[in-house]
Amino acid sequence: IATVHNGAYKALINGYLPVVVLLSLICLLPFVFDAIATHYEKRKTFSGVESSIVGRYFYYQLANIYITVTAGALWTSLGAIIDHPQHLLFILGNTLPKLAGYFISLLLTKTLAGLPIVLLRFGALSRMTFLNSCFNRKRLTQRELDEVHRKQPIYYGWEYPTQFLAIIICFTYACITPFILPVGAAYFFFAQIVYKKQSLYVYTPTYDSGGSMFPQAISKTLFALMISQLTFIGYTLIRKGVFQIILLTPLPFLTVFFSSFIDDRYVKPSTKLSLERAVKIDALQKETQNFSDEAYQQPVLTEKTSLPGDGDCDTAVYNLVLNKLQSLHRESSRRESSLPFGESA
Predict the structure, then answer these.
(1) Does the N-terminal or the C-terminal CB of the chain have fewer CB atoms within 10 Å?
(2) How far is C-alpha 4 from the chain's CA centre?
(3) pTM for the complete prediction?
(4) Which region holds residue 200: left if phi is over 0, alpha if psi is between -120 and 50, else beta?
């Protein structure tokens, strides 16, 4: 193929064929991860399956990007390294920025091909085309029509890693090859338009996980930022920048601190019911349960003193004392009435 028309297609094949193969593999991997989460891990909830897919997909993309960077740099400059092994760091420092062209092609392909595919929804489009060309709507049952016009949920295990891939590429090459930033900005601009339209008019929630996917997305984004910072520190070390490394060293620690702050300040409190919300729920309830002050005490310590009579201990003692006082009062009145007039007891 490289010799057809004097190599006219060679640049096209070398530049875009690896990108197409990678994107095809990326599209197939969620099905594999879904089968692992469902049949091997035995996850029972939709949110659990999606969370498992997001985690595995993210780490695969992270490893794929950095293995591509390392292996590509070594393979491209292998001959120069063998001839001049003493200049290893210098050769790698000059080779790493050149690999950004591959990732720029990947972002352009996702922008010009991936986003239109999301917008066109080939699955729903093919169902409608097949229905209109092969069937008569009037002869179909309502169940068959509902199957064709079924609601489309948002698959977080597919959508989140797609954005992770783009943001990891931008984080990694932002300082090494700044030309990638306009390409990444263009991708996220059009992605916002596409996914905003899909979220408002197409995607329909089929389950409620209480926003459990959002903290995972934030934590993985910050983890990707930390890895890209370490990569840039390593690249600066290759370029023998001593003072730059001293200034860059606090960045990963600040990212870890911010991630832990987000987790303690927002993620953990979001898993618990707020006091304000609990008071509102209690106010809305028509029937309130009576709570005993002795609910968490030992039964032996809550037993009353055994006294004759009905009721609890305090009532029995009060009635006993009151009866004795009344009897004494009657006794005193009887004695005073039995005495002669003018005498006192």
Answers:
(1) C
(2) 49
(3) 0.65
(4) alpha
